[in-house]
Every structure is written in structure tokens, then in C-alpha cells.
Write the C-alpha cells for this entry.
Amino acid sequence: MQPLFTLEFRSFLDRENLSYIEQNKCFSINNGSINVCLIPFDEYAILNHHLKTHIETFILHQDQWIKKREIVESHIKVSSGIYESFYARNCIVEKINTSIARSFHNQNHLLGGVGAKYNYALIDKAKNRILAVSSFSSPRVMDRGEANVKSYEWIRHTTAIGVRVAGGMSKLLNKFVKDVSPQEVMTYCDAEWSRGDSYIALGFKKHSETGEQTFYIDKSTFERLSIKKIRREGLDLTPDNIQKKFYTLRTKGNLKFLKSIV
């Protein structure tokens, strides 16, 4: 019998009329334009090293499917060419407060909301609708060999579900650079969902990889908890408690990118 996770994912592809070939819980979609590999709970402790090819590959864990299904579906649809299209030249950029930015990230990004010093919204002038939000940190002084530089983290870039904005990331970044005059901008992307091509197109260079990371998934709420958060909240991580209350998840971690601002 097919697991419910696989059945539900296949049903989504059929509903959206996306062609696919399925093999060992991996789906080659739209004539191989993207791959999606499903990782059920019972495989969470295994670091899944799937073949790296020129084809975009997404690693979809079962907790993401349960908690963030609408966002996951949107990501796959947009990557498959199913989206509402906009152009950044027809949009304006405005500063927004942390509350509005956090809410937008929560509704549209797999990692959810975040606190940030600087938040910008890309707004469709015709409908006065927020299409994307970028959030940036306060500066940190970093030693870059010959000099110390003021470096800012691009903590989150989020596009609305079902939307693609040509030039949107560039317009938001340029507004931040104009306002703040950073010497450097750094950012991370999830290695299981992106190769960082969008950042490279903006002039970022790959700096490093974090390597594998461990998370604990609450079996009752499916909340994803980092080691840092668990320590901060003082949760009990004895072996018996872990086995009883959590799934232990190993991921490929993040890719780090840097851009020097001249």
C-alpha cells in the first residue's frame, strides 16, 4: 500500500496537470525540468544524498508537507511555470514595519517570520498588493582580510504564493543598498530547496556551506525545532524523551553567499 504522503503528493500533481515519472519516492516533473524527492518521517535520521545534476532538485520532508503544504505546492508550481506574472518595473518599493513583514513571511515562506532591522515590500501599483518582502539585519563588522567591513544579512526574501515577479529581488536589494549603503550583503539559502542561482544572478558569490544540520520535529505539532531553540527553551532531550516526542531530522544545511557593494 502506498504511504499517504506519496498518495497526497501524486494527487496534487494530477490536480495541477503536471506530468511526472515516479521512482523510489522521487518525482521527475514536467519532462524532467525539476525533481522532487519525498522524505517520510521514518527516513528522517538518514542524510539523503540524492544525485546532483543540472536539474533542480527539491527535498521535501513530510513535516513541511503537513505544516506548509500551500507554500510547498506554490513553490513547485512556480518552478514548473504555473504562476501569476508581474514585472518589478510596474511596482514600487516601500519600507514596512516588522509586524507586517513577519506576517507576510509566515504566510508565504517555508521558514516563516523573522525579526529584522530593515523591511521592504514590493507593491503592485495597480492593485496596491504586496507581491514580495525582503528583510535585512543590523550591521556586523566582519574581518575580510585586508579590511573590516560592515556586513548586513539578507535574512529573508519572500514572494507571495503563486506569484513570480521578474526583477523583484533586484529592485528590493537596490532599494536597501541605496538607503543603507552597506559595504557587504550576505545571505543563506536552503541547500535542499535551492542552488542559489537567483543570488548568483544578482552578483553574489558562493562563500561556503554550513554542512548537515540536525532538527527535532515535535510529533504532535510537527513544529521544527533547532538545537539552538531547544537549548534556549530548556527542553528535555534525554534519549527516551527524544524517541517518544520527536522525529530527529538531518538536513543538508545551507549555502552561504556574499556580495561586496562598490
Observations:
- The chain has eight helices and 17 strands.
